[in-house]
Amino acid sequence: MREPSVLLQSLRLARRELRSGLRGFGVFLACLFLGVFAISAIGSFSAAAKVGLLNDASALLGGDLEIRRMHRPFSDEERAFFKARGEMSQVIELRTMAGNALKDQHALVELKAVDAVYPLYGQLRIEPNQPLAQALAGQGALVEAALLQRLNLQVGDPLQIGDLRLQITGVLKVEPDRNVRPFYLGPRVMISSKNLTATGLIRPGSMVTYRSRLRLADPDRAEPIIAELHAEYPQAGWRMQTWRKAAPRVRMILDRLGTNLTLLGLCALLIGGLGVSGAVRGYLDGKVMHIATMKCLGASSRVIFNAYLLQVLFLGAIGAGAGLLAGGTLPYLLVWSFGEQLPIPLQPAIYSLVLFTAALFGLLIALLFSLKELGIARQVSPVVLFRGYSETGRKTPGRKIWIAIGLTTLMLAALAYFTSGDQRIAGGFIFGVVICFLIFRLLAAVVINLTRRLPRPANPSIRLGLANIHRRGSPATSVLFSLGLGLTALVMIALVQANLGDLVNGSLPEKAPAFFFLDIQPDQVDSFEKRLASLAAVSRIERYPTLRGRITAIKGIPVEHAKIAPNVQWAVRGDRFLSYASKLPEGSKLAAGNWWSADHQGAPEISLTSDIAKGFDLQIGDSLTVDVLGRSITAKVSNLRIVDWSTLELNFAILFTPGVLENAPQTHLAAVHVSPAGEDEVFRAISSQFPNISAISTRELLSNVSRTLDRIGGAFNAMAGIALLSGFLVLAGAVSADQHRRIHDAVIFKVCGATRRDILLAFATEFIILGLAAGSISAFAGGLAAAGILKGPMNLDFNLHPLVILATLAAGITLTLVLGLAGTWKALGQKPANYLRNE
Amino acid sequence: MAEPIVKIEKLHLSLVGGAGPVNILCGIDLRIEAGETISILGPSGAGKTTLLMALSGLERPTSGRVEVRGVDLGTANEDELARFRRKNIGIVFQSFHLVPTMTALENVALPLEFSGQPNALEQAAKALAATGLANRIMHFPGELSGGEQQRVALARAFVAQPSLILADEPTGNLDRETGQMVMELLFTLQQEQKSTLVLITHDEQLAGRCQRSIHMADGILRPVGGENR
User: Fold this and answer.
1) Do B114 and A391 touch (CB under 8 A)?
2) What pLDDT digit, counting tens, does each position of A251-272 carry?
3) Nearest CA of chain B to the CA of A472: how many Å?
4) Which residue in chain B has the smallest CA separation from A762?
5) Structure letter (DSSP) for residue B93
6) Which of 3-32 (B) contact A at CB < 8 A?
7) Which of A478, A492, A556, A799 could be stapled to A785 by a disulfide with Cβ–Cβ 3.0 to 4.6 Å?
8) Coil/strand/helix, residue A92
């Protein structure tokens, strides 16, 4: 007679076993669901946002192609060149002060002057509804609702901008090309470009951005036109962007967020893996006699292994499938619930690659964390049927299974690495996870050994608690793992947040100025300083002439080809503030080279901050080329400075020697230190006397940044919440998997004369020791991970917050204790007679 | 006349099952003198094990009174009963009920540890030596034969030198030869410690070794022809 194939036998067995339902797999399914949900939700959201951005790209950019330049308007010739290639719209933007013309109230606004063709793409929404041309006719101005609130204005009221008195004709509700930026310095005011000159704000050196947008007959022509513009005007000093790369910062932030959140999601899934392992162990422990019986009846180890593997995969598919469903529908739900309120246009769809990756993560985790248990189950000896107790010794799954576990781990790591947007971060994450697993494995071994070697305490319950940790089959390892990894993630997140909070906690750094005043015209400097000097609240003024310029070459190599470290990429991404000084500015420390003499003459030299020099691989004597208003200046690096930016004192990354920039059109930038009580007075005094000077309040700026970080923090918190929930599920799973044994032990203890207090004390001792051990190592590992994240990808300082760590650990350990004891409460309340009768 | 160690009066005990309350013990009256050995015989379902549980304070009477060494077990709370048990009662089960994750030594030491005795492990080792398991003290239950496991259970029941030993078919899971050995040990220990023994068994020959036998059926006791010897 032919023996049926192993697969067929396994399938038949698996099907019969599965008939008994999903009992005991709650934690297994919940862990996989949460992890896969997190990963697929982030992936789907990110993809929907990217596709949405691309769909709306032309509207977001304001055209198929945008050419922008600071300071210098486009010449007639340039404009003619643009017009020959498509329909053109011109937009001019600057930051300035707006005032309530009737009261002495001022606020910083982002002013935008538009022409009659604006917007080339998309629709504006104005309240009350009216055509844009009508709203901006005469001295009409549209404003964001926030400005009305800030200046106590209403539609119809006058609004003073520079020298021009405008009239508010409506509220801007939707502005299609409002750059999707993390934060703004002030609310929007939109006027007609015809009125801009009358404001008197366009002066030499004013920070004005000129934008020419083109609508092309064929949007794909955008790139060839850029090539033409480069060829025709190599020295124009403008920046160009096509619809394909609209909202680059949003994309970058999305990518960053996506990468980091996916890794946090993966963290949740990994912690959930422990739940998978615990559930499979619990299930298979309950099946020992069953497996032994089947082996007695002739089932081979392979059949047993395959039958249970099939069950795990089937259940894994259910958990992961539910997670995919929830994750995949998230963008639909967001659009359905928030619609137009969303800051980013979302294009919900089923993004199959995202879902496939998330599913693969889920199944690999299910496999990785159940292989060992399956391997052990495969080796169950039929002898247990005759002995009554299964062997409690250390069990290993065998060499083949260890190899399979190794291969699955590698596959998982490769998947995490290659699907990540930032492989450096992914690599760091994988390294961190491996280290964490090793640390907690080692910790488990140390704790178990230590409790075995400790002198026997006099109190029998404490002795029992200790014995519970080191006895055979103790759940100490899995509790330490789940609690340890969960607490590590918690400490890490709490520390990163606390450090970000340090940056923006609203209280200003001691040396921080209260205001930055921008766009001070050279002829206003004297009167500006005189006015400040007349105010008692002002304690110190620092003022520098400033220009905007961009770095174009490093050691003669154009920046596009130069090797630049990721942490200083920002320096070449756009225009930078430049200045010149004869003395080393306060708050700077010379790190290398010598400061130039006060009467320096000769070839231009620059002083650079040492972090940029390091990122550019520049040494003293190397050259840096900067484009200032179309003029290319190559200067030798003569010294390096260390600047503590966190003090928010006025400083510059690039400082020139005197005698290089003096003749270029420039404005002045001043940092003014004011006692907190006098801030309002200073703001009012300057804004009313110098309407063209923009005042940025450091306090407001920080609260703006803090709001943005709060929003980003919200997303992180949600992910961290999922990771934590997984951690607690795992813990609950580990405790409940051990429930049967605890009830059995509690009953025997009661028979032997133990009171409920004795038993409670024994269980509490066990959980407190495990909690403290896991907690102390988590504080260390979480601190290390937080320092790595802050100092690495975020490029920020790391402060250890012992109180945050202690509070986090106390909360975590208390919860564990509560959870652990709640789980054993059932064991305590068990009536021995019922249990003994049923055994 | 000395006070009996066990005094049961009009003991009724009902358990609530799926089909409603079931009367297990229906008015039991029993007195057992200190040092006496008594066997309870009867068919399965007669209520023997329930009587034993009521005697150990593991089951609470529905009505009536159970007194052991003058203590009314019906009025004591769970923890008071546990404390009473650790000093006064040793129990031997048919299916041993050892803690599988503890060694033989640790299992035996449990009652002493709970009563806070300082040299619990030394005493447990002696008790195990007395059952012939001196060389198996560090073994786990899964590593011992059925007979050995029951000897560990006997050592655990006797280690605190309780005045009352309750044994529920202690040989039920053992072969005849091993069973005889275990019973020899049980009676030897009982005689050494002069403890009172209540033995539940199906084996009439075994029951005959006790000073008195009682038959139990449908929750009621009937004496079997007076004293055995």
Assistant:
1) no
2) 777 777 777 777 777 777 887 8
3) 6
4) B114
5) -
6) none
7) A492
8) strand
Distance separating alpha carbons of residues A125 and B199, to the nearest angstrom:
93
Contact A13, A314 (CB under 8 A): no
Copy the structure tokens of residue A349. Answer: 């769809």
User: Taking the model in full, what pTM does it have?
Assistant: 0.67
Are residues A836 and B97, on separate chains, in Cβ contact within 8 Å?
yes
At B229, is the pLDDT very low, low, confident or very high (cuts 50, 70, 90)?
very low
Q: How far apart are the first and last CA of chain A?
A: 42
Burial (CB count <10 Å: 0-12, 13-18, 19+), residue A518: buried
Separation between Cα atoms, residue A231 and residue A225, nearest integer Å: 10
Chain B window 169-188: which residues touch A at a Cβ cutoff of 8 Å? none
DSSP state of B39: E
H helices, E strands: number in chain B: 7, 10
Q: Compute the mean pLDDT over every residue in chain B, rounded to the nearest whole number.
A: 88
What are the beta bridge partners of residue A113? A92, A191
Q: Does B85 touch chain A (CB under 8 A)?
A: yes
Q: Which residue type does B194 have?
A: K
Domains and CATH numbers, chain B: 35-60+77-227 (3.40.50.300)
- The residue with tokens 């500006």 is A528
For residue B165, which amino acid is it? Answer: I
Q: What is the C-alpha separation between B213 and B226, in angstroms, rounded?
A: 8
Q: Which residues of A562-579 are buried (b: 16+ CB within 10 A; e: fewer)?
A: eebeeebeebbeebbbbb
Question: Shortest CA distance to A755 belongs to which of A464, A472, A473?
Answer: A464
Q: What is the pLDDT of residues B171-213, one digit of tens each?
A: 887 788 888 888 999 999 999 999 999 999 888 888 999 999 9
Which of the residues in chain A have pLDDT under 50? 506
Q: In the block, which residue shows the tokens 């580990």? A: A734
Selected for mutation to probe chain A from B102, B106, B178 (highest A CB count within 10 Å) is B102
Residue type, A607: S
Q: What is the pLDDT of residue A383?
A: 63
A420 close to A265: Cβ distance less than 8 angstroms? no
